[in-house]
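README, section 4: Worked example with a bound small molecule

Sections 1 through 3 covered apo chains. Here we extend the same pipeline to holo records, where the ligand is supplied as SMILES alongside the sequence. The molecule in this example is magnesium ion. Nothing else about the input changes; the structure line simply encodes the ligand pose together with the chain.
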Amino acid sequence: MRPAVTGPDLRLEPSPQAGTAPAKVSLRNVARTYRSARGGKVSACTDVTFDVAPGEFVCLLGPSGCGKSTLLNIIAGLDRPDRGEVLIDGRPVSGPGPDRAVLFQEPALFPWMSVAANVDFALGLAGVPKTERRDRRMFWLGKVHLSRFADAQPHELSGGMRQRAALARALACEPDVLLADEPFAALDAQTREILQRELQRVWVETGKTFVFVTHNVREAAFLADRVLLMSAPPGTLVEEQRITAPRPREFDDPLLAKVVSDVHRHLIKEVEKVVAREIGG
Amino acid sequence: MWRARSAAKQVWPRLAAVLALVAVWQLVYQTGFFDHVVLPSPLQVWGSLRANVADGSIPRAAEASLIRLLIGFAVSVAAGTLAGLAMVASQFIERSFGSLIIGLQSLPSIAWLPLAILWFGLNETAVLFVVVIGSFPSVTLATVNSLRQVPPLLERAGRTLGAKGWRLYRTVIFPAAVPGYVGGLQQGWAFAWRSLMAGELIASGALGLGQLMNASRENLDTPEVLAVMVVIVAIGMIVDLAVFGAFDRRIRTRRGLAVAG
Ligand SMILES: Nc1ncnc2c1ncn2[C@@H]1O[C@H](COP(=O)(O)OP(=O)(O)OP(=O)(O)O)[C@@H](O)[C@H]1O
Ligand SMILES: [Mg+2]
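The generated complex, written as structure tokens:
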């Protein structure tokens, strides 16, 4: 299913890569229903179909509860769809795998390991030989400016540093796809902006495929090649906006301001539906 | 330096409490309200303690008790941990066996001694049985609870990094459960020590602190009874603080968790 065009200023264009390169990540009519604690059923998302091209940065945006985290978990292989399928390089996902790394809202570092040991642990699981781990770890910790903190315990770092360490751990395994679920949402505005810049730089340098969930329209506009907007729950795609502004981008880029206000207007519409539903019944 | 100061912070309040207790005891002694045969002075107890340490009777008894305790505690850690893992692995085992364990905890372990004597005779095995049955439920419950309380986020992080099956347990879930598990061991140790003393007092055939105390009672040697009691408390506290407490503080400091005490 193609997302419907509902706004005059949002044009639906086919991905430039469509038909030329096979998609890196592809969702086909994915739906997931949860059983609620009281025995009822909650439809988290229905009929979600989209492709992510290799090296593309896609942001998923939508009102709270529309199934963004659910979709990300399904792509990660932590959860299974009830209907539809997820393909990575054309192959169905059967569980978590080293080709996909996940950044959670909380950094999820192992508190009993130093920062270096956290990265080494991931490298070990990815099958990197012991002799190469040190160099790989130092390289990626350097990329996120944490070389000096390699021997620190996670709790000794600030929130932003912890999230950077988690990013280094994810990148060190050299996954093809990075899945991020509001990784900067818990940070203060300044730290968030610094990390957004760093992520942009890392993305430009590494060319990884990103699926990035966020609530923050500005963040989506700053980072993404393409923003996918989801409807009020049960979530499905309603809008798609391509952002062609060249990189490196700046937050005060006037091109982005227009994108932000467009996307924001559509997001608000979906959020209002949720609110109306909650007030109405 | 920091280490020494923190050790002092651990020891000082406890020392103050002991000194206060001794002072009150001395005052009560001096009022003469109790017969001095019934309540000896702190100094008399101290004298008896030194004499019993010097002639080797307290060290020998303490050694025998501690060896018994170590054997019993090792058995209950092994049995309790295995039972806990089985309960985590199977809902059926948890529902059936789990409720039994909670029931078992409400029965003072010493209540098993008559049965143990009937089964094993008035010997070492009966006392060991009481120690094990007194301490393994807390190890079991600590195993179960500490595994249940592992943050799902860490498990998910481990899985997305590629850990699964036994490896996920060995490298992520068990390490994450360690602080809770150590707390359970500490509690199990306290129960084991209490059960052992109760068992030794009643089944006082074999050498041990309980037996020594019984012998002192038969000789109406109140200072010696109190001296052995002091040793029992001291051993309990030293192990609790120096072994479990220190280990617990180390783990918590390393992980940035709140450090108690
Ligand atoms: N494990 C679960 N059991 C039951 N219901 C669930 C579960 N996980 C999610 N849900 C439900 O599915 C819906 C979608 O949840 P999800 O977490 O994917 O939303 P989200 O878009 O990530 O929201 P937010 O922006 O607030 O993070 C919600 O209604 C939620 O209550
Ligand atoms: Mg979410």
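What to look for in the output: Chain B touches chain A at residues 153-154, 156-164, 171-172, 175-176, 178, 251, 254-257 (CB under 8 Å). Residues A 34, 36, 42, 44, 62, 64-70, 215, 233 surround adenosine-5'-triphosphate (ligand 1) (CB under 6 Å).

Section 5 describes how to batch many such records.
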